[in-house]
Amino acid sequence: GEQLELVEKYAKAQGLWHDPSAEPRYSERLELDLSNVVPSIAGPKRPQDRVSLSDAKSSFAKVLPSYLSSNTATNPIAIEVNSRKGSISNGSVVIASITSCTNTSNPSVMIGAGLLAKKAVEKGLMSKPWVKTTLAPGSKVVTNYYEKSGLTPYLEKLGFNLVGYGCVTCIGNSGPLPLEVSKAVNDNDLSVAAVLSGNRNFEGRISPDVKMNYLASPPLVVAYSIAGTMDHDFDKDPLGQDSSGNDVFLKDIWPSMQEIQGVIDSVVTSDMFKKDYSSVFAGDHHWTSLATPEGKTFDWDPKSTYVRKPPYFESMPRNPLPVTDISGARVLAKLGDSVTTDHISPAGSIKVDSPAGKYLAENGVEKSDFNSYGSRRGNHEVMIRGTFANIRLKNLLLDGVEGGFTRNFIDGGKQSTIYDASMAYQDAN
Length: 429
Description:
Elements: H1 2-13, E1 40-42, E2 50-52, H2 56-63, E3 77-81, E4 84-88, E5 93-98, H3 107-122, E6 132-135, H4 140-149, H5 152-157, H6 179-187, E7 193-196, E8 212-215, H7 218-227, E9 240-241, E10 247-248, H8 250-253, H9 257-267, H10 270-277, H11 285-288, H12 341-344, H13 355-362, H14 380-386, E11 405-408, E12 414-417, H15 418-428
Parallel strand pairs: 5-6, 5-7, 7-8
Antiparallel strand pairs: 1-2, 3-4, 9-10, 11-12
Helix pairs in contact: 3-7, 3-9, 13-14
C-alpha cells in the first residue's frame, strides 16, 4: 500500500506514469531490407563501426597503420604460455570472451557457439595459446542447458571456462593477461585485439593492454579464438588442419540452423527459467548476511569508497538559478572527432597511478580491490578524478601522449593530469 503509493507519486512527478489514452509519436520511420543483412562484426573502437565478416581482414589491414608507432615491433614476437609455444604480432587476438550483456539471453547463438566448439574439437582444433578465453553468461540457465546438451566439455577444451555470471570482460573485469603475453605486448608496443560478444567496445574499456576491440556473435568469438588473429579471412584462410592434415575452414565446423534448433528443442525448456529465476532475488550467504538498514532515507556511510553523499544538491534552490556565461576559463582538453562517453567517463579498470587510484589508496583500498570506474559510480570523488581519464584519450594540447593528461597553464604549461590541472585552476580562483 504505502510503497505502491510512493511509486505512483514518484512516477507521476517524473512524467513516467503510463497514460493508456496517449498515442505514441515517432520522429522518423526506419526500414530494413532483410536481403541486405550479412554476417558482421563491429570494431575496432566503436559499436557502430560495422564490418562485414567477409571484409574483416581487409578492414583490419586498413585501420592498423593508425595504431602503430615508431616503437612498434614489425616482426612476430615468440612467446610460451602454459608450455605451448607461439608468436604474437599486431592484430593478434589476446582476449576472446563470450560475455553476458547481449547475446547470452539468446539460446540460438549460445548453442551455436557450443556446437561450433564441439565440431572444432572433433577436428582437432584448439584455441591459440596467447588467447585468454572466458565464458561469462548472464544467467545460470545458460550453463544448465550447456550441461544438459553435453556441450560444456567442448567449450572448456577450447578454454571457455565459466568465470562468473554478469558483467566481466565488457566492463574491464577480464583480469590481467598472462604475464608472457602482457610483457610481449607492452615491451614491443603491439596493437593486439579483443573479441567479445558484448555491445560496448570503446577504447580502453576492455583491457589496458588491448588497443583494438571487436564485437562479434558467440560462435565467432570461438572462431576467432582458434584463428588467433584479426588478420584472418574466414572464407579463404583455414583455421587449422585435422588429424589427416586436411585444411579446416570455418564453413566446415559452422553448425546449421537445423542442428542448433534440434539441440534447443531437446534441452531448453521453460522450466529451466522458472526454476533458476524463482530464487533470483534470494542471493547467497554473502548477500543474506548483510545488515539491512532501516528507515525511509538512506544512511550514508562517510567511510564508504563506493557510495558517498554528493554535495551538489545541498545548496541548490528548488527553482534553478538562471544560466550565466562562463568567462575566464582555461582549456583542459582539445579533442578530435568521435569522443565517446567512455572517453569522458571511462567504465574500465582504475590505474594505480591515476588520480582515482591514488584517492582509493589514500583511503586504504588495496590495488586488488580497486574494481572499476563503473562499479564506483556512486562515489563522486572517484568519478571526478576519473573524468577524461580514459587511457586512450588523445588531448591535442599535448603531442604523442595518450591518457587523461593536459597542460597546466599556471605552471608553465607542464604536463599534468586533467584532474590535477582543474583543481589547480579552481584553487587559483
